[in-house]
């Protein structure tokens, strides 16, 4: 009997009670196919054991019992083992059936445990349950994508011979019920011949399957005890494979003026940041030389470095494609990729690239490939003619044909966003400046030329982001190369300077990277729109982004650290490695929609992305789903299943007090500014009315205003400390399930939760991790970033002491404060290994020190006048 379109576990068990076994089988098989709850699936399988036995399908009942007896749920195992024994006693198996032939193997994936069973052929795609028994003699292909136990495998999984085959839609009917998937076997499924007394003897089975629900009626506690699968390939998940548009009409073009202004703003900010930094270094150097006898300051360092910085940035922007080629070639082994080579992985992408470039009259971008197992894609250059599209081998291996094409289309989106509007305006302003210069008005001429330089980045999307990445790369290479040199050098005299240089370079990398965050977040919304217009496949793009997230998380677990490539080129990648670590590591235990609830529903979520390189992936995928609905397509992700989407917006609003508390240090700066303006107003009133006691406020207006800013920051930090770091007591510690923490929609980082989590500490070894840059806790339910602060603050990490990096790759217990933001993290209090080695973190203390220092500095500025 075929499964029903709307199966129900309750209806199936009710039919089982009433003796309507055919209806019961139809409902329960449907539950096994479509239900996402492991508990419901276990109950349905227990009911199917009874229904199969009562309808004479003994072999199916036996195989289900074998599977359930291997569950890590103790009650399920204790229920299934005696039932299996009764079935073996009542219906003994013929000796010749010990080795099933390929023609009679059960397509559901069940096989009895037998140490002598030879390796079986890979299961067909019609295996809708995804269950296979534990058997060390099974072939690796059968075990691919399955957990270590039958109860471990969520309903999203399916046994697959290779990742690429499973990720593509199968021509077979994957929704066929379990009963139809099994080929006929008259010996295994003999007609029902039990007597009435046998039927009465089977009543305990029926009662146990319906009324006794081992380990499934216990709510949250048993849910947390679900066995966890440690590694899962993206293709091992069962995707909906929602379709694509046929004969679609491109959507209306999006206005890019805001993006152009942002590009110019980032270029100007990069120029001023480097200029101020360089000027600070030159001034500090000369001040140092003045205090040393017999040495003279460098006169050139007294000059403004403006011209040098402009020329250097222009040269880097012009040479950025070739410099980045050299960096990727030397450090990461990049290789050329031809269209014929690409067609072996994605024929659609190989056809789409030249077709679209021909339509837009663009030169075909240079294609390259990285020998990395992490699925990444990069696009850089300064003009469309010099653009490069780089993908990794991991991306080609883990994504299907249409998904690879969607990623390439998205990379093309970054290229076609380039416009010559900035160059045209700059050229015009340069000519006007030259005209003023000929007239003898040098001031006006230089002003026009500065305006020309400021307008030059307008529309140069690819050039600006490539320039930011290149400058950041130079600092990042110094960081990890010096760190590696310091690790190989045994001299303590050289280690400290190496650590200082490495730390300063890493800080410079983050400073430059921060300048490009806003532009990086904005450009992906445009490229996603272009990708869906080119391919007509928003669902393929959705699957591609999710598989990239899963693949990056898997790569971090396999290599037990974050690779240099993932961190340094984060701004160019389709999915940020930090958001991928959270999303990609918990999806084997829950649905995508559940994890993405915070991204879609939290009213204050946009404020939390200020320090993120990518837009919230939930918002991004929801927007892509709207493109699919625009073309009347079924969506890959069902966002309507999120209950809160139906809730009125007034009920979803985060209290303003919570958001103000979250941003208290920054709102404190605004408060300080307002306080300084108030003092200026009082000084003006005193001057107007001749009140001498108030006049001084007007005379020292700028000093008071500048001093009030750090005072406001310190007061705001004080206000937030208690909420950010509540007292940790044994009674309020939680041993949480990460998917549940991630799915909470109303929380902000200020809603701190004391937690205790056990797992394995991942991260880089050695000097490159002395600042705690790469600390990740791998738990049974996912990955989460850890933040650490030493007793002496950042300086203390450079001194010989116990560091978290000393516990890398060891089982640890982490106690600290969980914060849910755009990317979740834990601020550590203690990190303890099984051998008793303990590393303490001092976040609350240093937050207090920072607040006091800021307030004291502001008071000193005002007192000094």
Automatic annotation (TrEMBL):
Biased composition (Polar residues): 139-166, 184-197
Domain Peptidase M48: start-end pairs: 370-425
Gene Ontology MF terms: metallopeptidase activity
Region annotation Disordered: where it falls in the sequence: 89-125, 139-236
PANTHER family reported in the protein's UniProt record: PROTEASE HTPX
EC assignment: 3.4.24.-
Transmembrane region(s): 260-284, 305-324, 420-439, 451-476, 496-519, 659-681, 701-719, 842-863
Alphabetized Pfam families for the sequence: Peptidase_M48 (PF01435)
Main subcellular localisation: membrane
Protein name: M48 family metalloprotease
Keywords tagged on the record: Cell membrane, Hydrolase, Membrane, Metal-binding, Metalloprotease, Protease, Transmembrane, Transmembrane helix, Zinc
Cofactor: Zn(2+)
Keyword Protease: yes
Topology term for the membrane: Multi-pass membrane protein
Subcellular location: Cell membrane
